[in-house]
Specification:
The chain is about 20% helix and about 30% strand. By secondary structure, it is α+β, with helices and mostly antiparallel strands. It has 3 domains: about 60 residues, RNA-binding S4 domain (Structural Genomics Hypothetical 15.5 Kd Protein In mrcA-pckA Intergenic Region, Chain A); about 100 residues, Pseudouridine synthase (2-Layer Sandwich), CATH 3.30.2350; about 110 residues, 2-Layer Sandwich (Pseudouridine synthase). The longest helix has 13 residues.
Length: about 300
Amino acid sequence: MEVQKITAHKSGDRLDTFLTEAMDISRSYIQKLLKEGRITVNGETVKANYKVKEGDAILCEIPDPVTLDAVAQDIPLDIVYEDDDLFVINKRAGMSVHPAPGSERDTLVNALLYLGKELSGINGVIRPGIVHRIDKDTTGLLLVAKNDQAHQFLAEEIKNHRAERTYYAIVKGNFGEKEGTIRAPIGRNPKDRKKMAVVKDGKEAITHFTVLERFLKYTYLKIQLETGRTHQIRVHLSYIHHPILGDPLYGNGNDPYHLNRQALHAGEIAFTHPKTGEKMHFEAPLPQDFAEILTKLRNERMF
């Protein structure tokens, strides 16, 4: 069981709302913990609608995760690189990274378990070896650690911005500038807890972009993450009114090219090898559906 201690830094929010943002956990799960008496404020159990006061000492007991049916499945993986410490995997669209309630099968973890290779145990049985994630319908490169030492090293590489993650996206609209940086804090959307948003009290989030090609109604971007918040690229681009083509969550749903997902690809990753100290760099080509849309846009280009 994990115990988290949080001191309220502001007053007025409902306790469940405050903890959802502070702990990056769903509101429904926070409410469940409250009903079970696992959350106290100043040593006393309270209800979800308790109004937080600045300085409140909040103690949260988070039980060990219930073991899901993380079974091994024979699912083909595009393994770009493998050694005794890590994998680099090119994930296809439509594959979740790890099991979750209601979605226990057909994930990257299920496929990894079938390989029978040792994986780090830092993230438990549901996310073995998973150093970082990309969204279900985002394609591209992921790091997977085979042992705890490699996992800790690679996680620090990402946390301290030493690892470089480069994405490619087709977004709506045109940019006047050639390159730029988006600095806007990200947290849970207060109006829709399933979404993230730029919010005043969110976590620092920094995204750099470079324009690669301009089309009539779209722009092809190269994007580099300085931080790694949930849905960061999708949220930031929507925030500056250039949502990713096909994004069902942060776009307007208009997908004239019928991609049926966001046009976002994790195309490059660079990091230091945890054992050898060698500088590693890998690239994954654009998936076919993404590349076909670029071809169509080039054919339609009017300037």
